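Our preliminary data section would be incomplete without showing what the modeling component actually yields. Below, a chain of 389 amino acids is followed by its predicted structure, encoded as tokens that our downstream tools consume directly.
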Amino acid sequence: MKQRVIYIIAGEASGDFLGAQLIQSLHQQAPEAILRGIGGNLMTQQGFNSLFPMHELSLMGLVEILPHIPRLYRRIQETVKDIINQKPDVLVTLDSPGFCHRVAKAAKKKLPNLKVVHYVAPSVWAWRPGRAKKIAQWVDHLLTLFPFEPSYFTVHGLATTFVGHPLLEQSIYPDATFRGRYGIADSALVLVLLPGSRLGELKRLLLPFCQTAVALSRDYPDFHVIVPTLPFLEQQVKQALDATGLRYTLVTSPVDKYAAFAASDLALAASGTVCLELALMNVPMVIGYKVSFVTYALLKRLVRTKVICLINILLNNRIISEHIQHDCTVKALKTSLVQLLQGQGEVQKCFMQKAIQLLKNPQGQNPSQKAAEVILAVADAKTADRNEL
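Predicted structure:
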């Protein structure tokens, strides 16, 4: 029996996380399989050898990318050449459609029978729906994280499987000693602030979030703020918090992030995956978000969804209060937080658990287990086709 060769490409941190989970499941289901490709630190920790460092592909923004275009082009050529040499049974691309599309398209020209599985669907339900038809031209099977996504692609003849969200695979053991370790009173009302992890988000959200916390603290004297952030943002966040006079705890250790959530009574957060993380920890939340005037004007024309919080999108209902752009004011944010404390928070918790259940695939498997199962089935089908020839 021929060993199956699976070529995996991850181009950014989210893909590296998915790739590491996928490699574990592939090793369990097909220990004899040969895994090749490009990945980051998490994937290499699973014994995966990357063709070149993944961080070379982790570039964002037009201006930032321009100086690197010649090197990226060389890396595309290098990757395609390696795929041709390896002749994999299946090529698995994780997110990063810009790089992956170019690689897969070029590789398929040289290997017409190459099967491609793409893991993480582009958000065509939010904007640029035409991407669904385009991805169907170079992908043989698509794996999605959300249950509402497959119908956007199957209409274009693309085989699509909802595998579930990778957050469900994380081992979360909240540390009940968090308040004690950080000197936070058991009686304190604790608000966790999550103004984002990008500099642009911090620039626009940190000040109104801090001002909202100050306004709320006037009504709740026994009040404490927790702010999980990244080490490179620590000083900027600390400076803003020091100016408020609030009692606060700054958390930069990823190990303590979920413990911080569990220790909190409510959250004020930027939109993004953090909404799902808070829901997993059953923390009632309010969403606030701002972008630049130009970006907002463009997105207002392009974005098709009426809500941006993933919980609201999953439930097709505005369960989580969202305050976007001009509505992202201290008065509006505080009003919604107070409503959580007056009973809306308990209602939110019930709905959030329903949303989390929707993130599980119907078979009850871990997302990476289901993804590995589909990928191996595609690889086996390729091998069967070749044997018939």
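The longest strand covers residues 5-10. The mean pLDDT is 90. Preliminary results of this kind motivate Aim 1 of the renewal.
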